[in-house]
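Bumping with the actual sequence this time:
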Amino acid sequence: MDKVCIVTGGTGGHIYPALALADKIRALFPSVDILFIGNDDRMESDVVPKAGYAFKALHTSGLVGNVFDKAKAVGQMVRARRQAKDYLKAFKPDIVIGFGGYVSAPVILAAHSLHVPTMIHEQNSIVGKANQLVMNQVDAIVTCYEKCSEVFPQDKIHLLGNPRATVAQESKFDPDYFRSLGLDPDKKTILVMMGSLGSSSVNELMKEALPDADRSLQFLYACGKDNDQDLHLFDGSGNIFVTPYVDTLKIYKKISGIICRAGATTIAEVTALGIPAILIPSPYVANNHQFYNASVLVQAHAARMIEEKDLNAKTLREQIDALFLDETERQLTMKNAKRLGKPHAAYDMIDLCNQLVNASK
């Protein structure tokens, strides 16, 4: 495997697992040439080049809106497929890997037409539209949830997990960074985060719920980069520390529990490490996929879940007490979460890539 093309875009949920795999390929095989393809107007056009990878842009839109918007999106897809074909002919990859987002569909279809081996990765329990569009043309499909087998062709599925799980598993605890956040390394630490931008509605609720929590717990509350007004919510509390952003990889190994959304990347990371979680799925995502992601863990007694419609100070405090103060329950949940984790996901995906490339020769 000498050249790898990765296509991803739209959201961090698609982009960061793709970068995790690319980083692992680069670490294991420094001579491999990696090219990313993504949208010209979404976050990947900024994030991927900053990570040090070559990037080629396409212009695509999702199939949403009225009939005219959808017709325009189809036209963009046709042009993007043609342009993707030119990119692939010039780069000559051994394999093309799609991580979802509507930009991935024309690139995967272009690769298929050029007889280049293809693989797609589905991060969520509910299969995305782009992956549904190309699933019958690809050579392999990597999933994180068994539920995806309800949609994908059975003979192509490989339940290998999310490469971000490997990143989390291999992360190193940074005691200086931990202390810089105001935290006591001898206390149980509960991380509270609702994504990089936070959630203003949840922030309001935290004002009620956290001050009454048991003082044996300390909370690190990442309120989100757009919520600076909440940085002083708990001044003087002594056990609640607020920051707009936290580098989770530097502290994961010291976290006793987490209260968070149920995005694919977060779940991959916490299960790889066995961190007991209270999941609050975002109701504002496509196909309510976070609810289904969380449900898989709840059914395995690997996490607790509170839907946002049921979220209030009382329900949150009850779950905090039940999961984080009862050490027997916390340890059981940790064990079950770890059982669901796929800490070798990145390595397993690279092995599968090599198998597909070798089979095509």
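The tokens above came from a reply further down the thread. The chain has 13 helices and 13 strands.
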